Amino acid sequence: MDAGPLVCLNWELGWSTYRDMRTNTLVTLGASAVFGIMAIVLARGWIRGAVENEFRQLPSQPALHTSFPNALDIQTVPVLVANTDLLFGDELTPDALRLVEMPEDAVPLDAMRDMADVFPADYNPLESGALIMLDDIRMNEIILPHRVSGLGGRGSLSARIRPGYRAVSIRVNDVTGVSGFVVPGDLVDIQYVSEPNPGLGKPLYRSDIILQSVRVLGIDQSHNRNNDAPEVARTVTLEVSHMDAQALAIAQEAGTLTLVLRAVGEALPSTTKSLDSRQLDMRANSDSSAKKPRRPVRVTPKKAPPPIAQITVIRGDTSQSVSVRKETIPSSTDTKLAGG
Question: Strands (DSSP E) along the chain, which ranges?
Fold first, then answer.
């Protein structure tokens, strides 16, 4: 019997079976994808409906509205402000002031609101005297009564002293006055150098900081805070309390006072302690002083001699030198003779 038709028949049956299985697989995958998409759509619809129902069940609350005041409802009043920068001691003239409208609740109670509050109707600086500024005022700053002197006034230093303080002057020179770099308005510490035991054979000096964060009011007879050029002065006027003024007077007679200039904005007091000549000598001789580091010295070890000995062998009339290796014989601590 010929096997060719049987082979063809088997191949056709196998191909038909494979094709049917592949078709079934594709149909199954397509149906799964369709069902998956339908499940996603249904889930989204259900979630959206549940959220909407949740919000419907909540009690309705009225929206809160913040009402801003209308610009037309703000009450304004005229106020005198500086038309330019005015410095301490400058003469105040009508041209240096102007009226501006400001909200009434933002104006200080004692602000000047009219030119007549500052200048009288018959104002004549040649007859009644000029009005003098008692403080520095910047442009557009409100004019307050305590910043302007009366008729015929002058820019005295007393107008700058804060309530409860006093002004006192101390002697300085180019060294104790920080080379003239201290200007009115700076903060300084006061260093007091004295000799507590002048009877000793060797002078013993002591340094103490007796005052901190002291405000400088004037240099010599100038209290202009805008003069930033260094100028060596002979006296410095300080703003201190009554008791501090007494302490400065005693310290100035008993020893030497030196100004220690503080950085701008550094007003808080710091912890200090006394220092005398003995502690200064200890600081100079301590290990903390800068010293030149010593270079390490390299030591080269010597080579040990070779363990070889020279021995001379004499045979009759002839002699010969022979090199032999040394043997180290351990030393015995037993002093007993052999045999007991």
Answer: 76-82, 91-92, 97-103, 131-132, 166-171, 187-194, 206-219, 235-240, 256-261, 275-276, 308-315, 318-325
Predicted pLDDT of residue 212: 93
Residues 88 and 147: their CA atoms lie apart, in Å, by 9
Comparing C-alpha atoms, which of 106, 80, 79 is closest to residue 94?
Answer: 80
pLDDT for the residue numbered 9? 57
SS3 at position 148: strand
CA distance 324 to 244: 97
Q: Is the model's pLDDT at 196 over the cut of 90?
A: no
pLDDT of residue 291 exceeding 60, the answer is no
Torsion of CA 132, 136, 137, 142, to 10 degrees: -70
- Distance CA(222)–CA(220), nearest Å, equals 6
Q: How far apart are CA 332 and CA 183, in angstroms?
A: 91
- The kind and range of the H/E element at 111 are none
Backbone angles phi, psi at 107, to 5 degrees: -100, 135
pTM over 0.90: no
CATH architecture of 71-155: Alpha-Beta Complex (3.90)
Q: Which two tokens stand for residue 188?
A: 């300084």
